[in-house]
Amino acid sequence: MPAKKFARIVLRETLSWFVALTLAVQFAPVLQIHAQNSGKPSSGNHENWRRAAVRAPHGMVATDEQLGSQAGVEIMKRGGNAIDSAVAVAFALAVVEPAAGNIGGGGFMLVRLANGKAAFLDYREVAPGKAARDMYLGADGKVDPEASLIGYRSVAVPGTVAGLDLALKTYGTMKLSQVMAPAIQLAEQGFVVDQRLAKELERERATLEPFAVSRRIFLNDGKLLHAGDTLRQPELAATLKRVASRGAAEFYRGKTARMLVDDMAHSGGIISLSDLAHYTPKIREVLRAKYTAGGPGSDGSTWEVLTSPPPSSGGIAIIEALNMLKDVPLQGWDDVDSVHMVAETMRRVFADRAAYLGDADFVSVPVAGLTDSCYAKEVAATIDPLHASSSKVVHAGHPHTCAASRASATPAPMVVSLGEGPHTTHFSVVDGAGNAVASTYTLNNSYGSHATSSAGFLLNDEMDDFTSQPGAPNLFGLIQSEANAIAPGHRPLSSMVPTILLRDGKLSFVTGSPGGPQIISATMLSIINWMRLGMDAQAAINAPRFHHQWLPDQLVLEEGFSDEMERALQSRGFTTTRRGHIGVVNAIGIDPKSGERLGAADPRHDGVAIGY
Ligand code: DON
């Protein structure tokens, strides 16, 4: 039996109480579930990629995992709104997508309510009180490349539980215990491991092995988990239950906090009880920009982009890029001129990202200048539409608003880190009333620090998103600056960029992605595909992606691009390289005519959209 089918059967059983509850609600009999599920993993083969989005009239959830999407839909069917649903999804993914779903990490949630209000919830991790600027340098003064990535010293103070609790209290309608019920059930009774998870855990074996709790839970005591096995996580279930009944305070000041700090004390970590007790999620102003898009998909609509402010670098980068591309006639990704212009835009935006961005609570970030249309025009004018630039000569610009002169701009500090690893997860939710949530959260790279707390959850390695050493090239060949230096209480710079588009003032598209710096490109391309090129929701996700991050000076193309296109780009001077996948965008569009929700999960990860 295919693993996914088996998983569906077990899902039916493990969520049986849930289904019973669902059936009990008045409207359930008339609702039909619309799900996107090919029945077998399709991510490797484009031929099998689904072509059409899932259409549904009421609510829609798009995540990496069937069990995650299912949990979110069930909460809405019980009367919860999109925020209740998103919190349920996040807790469920913390159980069923251990590489990225988490309670030991952090993230962002962009909320837009049907009444037009919008807010950005920042529950990014912070550096512990004992963190220090040079903590990842060895005795020889050189960066120890593993220290900020593996083990207890790489862990920043987790923010997820505080953030989800804040989201629920501020915008939700249900109790924590209600929205956590699916996650608790999945952790306690277990879920069936599919082929992808089994392979992933095998791949991570060497790095998980040294950590006793990780080895016991995720490597099945060394015997490994195989497709069809059931993964039960009793310690995680117990932790989730304590949080469900006592609230986020349990995680930050209760037994869970004490367990985590004991783990730290025994294993060389530096997080203290005081760090946990002082962790504060923040509600921030949403970054906004307006466009009247030209191009093949344009019908004269006015668009508003609602996106992520610092400590995300992504919102600023996307607005700067869209500003630069405002008057560029984009045709699509089989048109070399369009790819050229967007790649050159990415190069410049990433040079600015590298230089200027950090935690705006502590360092000054020129947000107004970077997102200003006059500045964008000035930067766009440096692009040669026929020849690739060289990143050796493209540097960060001098961001300024139309009102201020270029000379008044603060000069760029040195370059910052883009040290991000391979896995994070983004999900989107829209409910029947039109409330919407875009959320990206992470442990940083897959399985974070690879260390699992005795309380049963994997711990992040988000400290690696800070600058370990100014001026030294990091894992990605980038040099780094003080703007993102390690300091107690600071949030490391992120690329995560949950984003929502409005069309003529109405909800239109909910998007975001994992992928380290590629998050920005993947999210931006999904926006261009929907807003500028008029693609339908699934086509906007399936379309081939590309990425340029200034340094290294290479244009990364997904396999979906033809050799002919690659040669055309090379003849213009681009150094190209291929990569299987860039980002994993789980998005939801709204059909402007019917109002239907169009769930478009990313086939690159065999994501699942479910609506009703
Ligand atoms: O916050 C960030 O930008 C990174 N920690 C995200 C890492 C990531 O996306 C890795 N995944 N695919």
Summarize the structure.
It is built from 20 helices and 20 strands. The protein has helices at residues 3-14, 16-24, 66-77, 82-96, 160-171, 176-189, 195-203, 205-208, 212-218, 234-246, 248-253, 255-267, 273-277, 314-324, 336-356, 367-370, 373-380, 518-532, 537-542, 563-571; strands spanning 34-35, 54-56, 60-63, 106-112, 118-123, 191-192, 230-231, 282-284, 287-292, 302-307, 425-430, 436-442, 499-503, 506-511, 546-547, 555-558, 576-579, 587-590, 597-600, 608-611.
Keywords for this structure?
disordered N terminus, eight-stranded antiparallel β-sheet, globular, alpha+beta, binds 6-diazenyl-5-OXO-L-norleucine, 612 residues
Plain-language structure description:
Residues 1-31 and 414-421 have low confidence and may be disordered. The strands form 4 sheets. Strands 1-20-3-11-12-4-5-8 form an 8-stranded antiparallel beta sheet. It has a 7-stranded antiparallel beta sheet with strand order 2-19-18-14-13-10-9. It has a 3-stranded mixed beta sheet with strand order 15-16-17. The chain has helices spanning 3-14, 16-24, 66-77, 82-96, 160-171, 176-189, 195-203, 205-208, 212-218, 234-246, 248-253, 255-267, 273-277, 314-324, 336-356, 367-370, 373-380, 518-532, 537-542, 563-571, and strands at 34-35, 54-56, 60-63, 106-112, 118-123, 191-192, 230-231, 282-284, 287-292, 302-307, 425-430, 436-442, 499-503, 506-511, 546-547, 555-558, 576-579, 587-590, 597-600, 608-611. The chain is of the alpha+beta class and 612 residues long. The protein is built from 20 helices and 20 strands. The radius of gyration is 23 Å and the shape is globular. α3 (66-77) runs antiparallel to α4, α6 runs antiparallel to α10 (234-246) and α14 packs across α17 (373-380). It binds 6-diazenyl-5-OXO-L-norleucine (DON). Residues 420-424, 442, 444-445, 462, 465, 494-496, 514-516, 519 line the site of 6-diazenyl-5-OXO-L-norleucine. 6-diazenyl-5-OXO-L-norleucine (DON) binds at residues 420-424, 442, 444-445, 462, 465, 494-496, 514-516, 519.
